[in-house]
């Protein structure tokens, strides 16, 4: 059920101000091999591509798909569709970010066709985001700034740790498994590891990811850079078995 909160779209809490050092100048020397993957200007172009290559639908699956989105800002990652109008995108992002939303919003936008428990990432999300911010603020060279979604935590009705994973329980088999955050070229960048991506659901995922990443970038006082999207199983829609 939804929780009482402000009705306006400006529901995001302000991230803490960056402290201590010039974060933009702190990053490890690196060679990023994602230059060899296909690049898309924004999520809109990638969404169209995902829809096209999964067009057979049904059980048809594309495996080990990788792409890079160059502009993953929230504005560029807001891609309304018939299934996901802007209001639905904003509702699901607020829910997954752990922000307040109203029962009226939940009643209006929550639909099984828009994703089940495997797309609910809110368990412990505030703490997870704070941990990633703390990691990169205190150690900008770190490779440990991760936000993981291995299972539904106890606070959201799950069974606990990933060692108890059960393939038959939707909420314990999250579609996105991990977001890896890192500082590179003076910007916050991210690689997302996705177990299962339905092309029709992609716009919901990327709106949430972009909002989360912008929140972290603002907290660190850096620009938001590119996003690399790794998908193990890519299908057209939720009609595929055991998504």
Automatic annotation (TrEMBL):
Residues covered by region (Disordered): 1-25
InterPro entries attached to this UniProt entry: Thymidate_synth/dCMP_Mease_sf
Record protein name field: Thymidylate synthase/dCMP hydroxymethylase domain-containing protein
Naturally occurring in which organism (per UniProt): Emiliania huxleyi (Coccolithophore)
């Amino acid at each position: 059920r939804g929780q009482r909160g402000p009705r306006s779209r400006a529901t995001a809490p302000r991230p803490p101000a960056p402290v201590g050092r010039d974060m933009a100048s702190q990053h490890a020397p690196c060679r990023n091999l994602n230059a060899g993957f296909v690049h898309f200007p924004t999520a809109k172009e990638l969404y169209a591509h995902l829809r096209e290559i999964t067009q057979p639908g049904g059980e048809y699956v594309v495996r080990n798909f990788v792409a890079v989105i160059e502009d993953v800002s929230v504005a560029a990652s807001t891609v309304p569709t018939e299934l996901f109008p802007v209001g639905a995108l904003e509702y699901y992002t607020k829910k997954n970010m752990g922000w307040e939303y109203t029962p009226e919003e939940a009643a209006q936008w929550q639909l099984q066709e828009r994703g089940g428990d495997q797309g609910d990432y809110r368990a412990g999300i505030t703490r997870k985001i704070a941990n990633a911010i703390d990691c990169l603020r205190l150690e900008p060279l770190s490779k440990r700034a991760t936000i993981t979604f291995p299972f539904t935590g106890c606070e959201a009705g799950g069974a606990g740790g990933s060692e108890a994973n059960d393939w038959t329980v939707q909420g314990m088999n999250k579609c996105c498994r991990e977001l890896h955050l890192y500082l590179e070229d003076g910007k916050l960048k991210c690689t997302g590891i996705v177990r299962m991506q339905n092309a029709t659901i992609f716009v919901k995922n990327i709106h949430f990811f972009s909002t989360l990443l912008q929140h972290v970038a603002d907290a660190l006082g850096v620009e938001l850079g590119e996003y690399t999207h790794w998908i193990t199983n890519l299908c057209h829609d939720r009609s595929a078995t055991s998504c």
